[in-house]
Amino acid sequence: MYRLEFHLPRRYRTEQVAATDMRRISRGRENRGFFNHNGSFNVPGGQAGQERLVVNFDPVIFLASGLDPTAREEVLDHEVQHYNDFVDLVNPLRRYLQRAVRRAPWAELHAAWRWFLYDYCYASAQFHRDLGRTSVELCNSPNAPRPY
Questions:
Q1: Distant-in-sequence, close-in-space partners of 59: CB < 8 Å, separation ≥ 6
Q2: Residue % of the chain over a pLDDT of 90
Q3: Which among 35, 44, 72, 116 has the fewest CB atoms less than 10 Å away?
């Protein structure tokens, strides 16, 4: 049996970073803007029989410093769409975990996390494809059944 601690701020934060840092932050994928949900999923322990499942998010939109106002607004709009996709996917995860945390085995809870990561990767890649951009995101589906 687990006790869920789910931390999600009401809104994303933005950070201005140098273009060279943007490549490092985005693992070489972006040079103008990047959204990162900064999610973590773990069981830090607790008393026997009362494990705490802790899910943390710290959503941030990184914007390259030096963008002119028009480009900055375009990049921000693009990254906000990634944030909106994230929110659309994180809410079902939260609802599932709130229900399942008392009865589901660890493997099923962890599978829910892996499916969330896959779904977000797929949504991001699809958004970029819809814009006519060749996607560099490789999304590997989990080898566990989808729990929700």
A1: 8, 9, 11, 12, 13, 35, 36, 37, 38, 83, 86
A2: 82
A3: 44
